[in-house]
């Protein structure tokens, strides 16, 4: 079973995974549970998505800086993708990390 998600920005591939430690780091940075942040994502979309990217990078890209995660967000949009496309990537990250079965949202 694939235990990571490959996120491609600017032709470069990044392996991402949501582990327990990654989720705790995300929650600490956001000041709320990950699922509460997702339920209220319309209130703070950009920061939530960038924080998820940052946290998911930590297990396989140690000490990945938050500023670089913000740069990946910008680079993804610059590559011609939409925020809606990015949300599909986040959904696939959750799926690859074992949060739900394929095809379930």
Describe this structure in words.
With about 100 residues, the chain is mainly α. About 55% of the residues lie in helices and about 10% in strands. It is built from 5 helices and 2 strands. The chain has helices at about 20-30, 35-40, 45-55, 65-80, 85-95, and strands at about 5-10, 10-15. A two-stranded antiparallel ribbon has the order 1-2. Helix 3 packs across helix 4. The radius of gyration is 13 Å and the shape is globular. The two termini are about 20 Å apart. The mean pLDDT is about 90.
Spatially, the strands of the biggest sheet line up as 1-2
How many E-type strands? 2
The gyration radius over C-alpha positions equals 13 Å
Question: What's the story with the biggest beta sheet?
Answer: 2 strands, antiparallel
Shape label: globular
Q: Return the string of H and E elements.
A: EEHHHHH
What is the mean pLDDT?
Answer: 91
Number of helices: 5
């Amino acid at each position: 079973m694939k235990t990571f998600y490959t996120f491609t920005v600017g032709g470069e591939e990044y392996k991402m995974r949501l582990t327990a430690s990654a989720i705790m780091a995300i929650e600490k940075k956001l000041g709320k549970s990950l699922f509460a942040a997702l339920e209220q994502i319309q209130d703070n979309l950009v920061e939530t998505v960038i924080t998820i990217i940052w946290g998911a990078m930590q297990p396989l890209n140690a000490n990945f800086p938050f500023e670089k995660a913000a740069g990946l967000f910008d680079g993804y949009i610059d590559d011609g993708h939409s925020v809606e496309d990015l949300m599909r990537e986040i959904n696939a990250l959750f799926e690859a990390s074992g949060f739900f079965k394929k095809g379930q949202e």
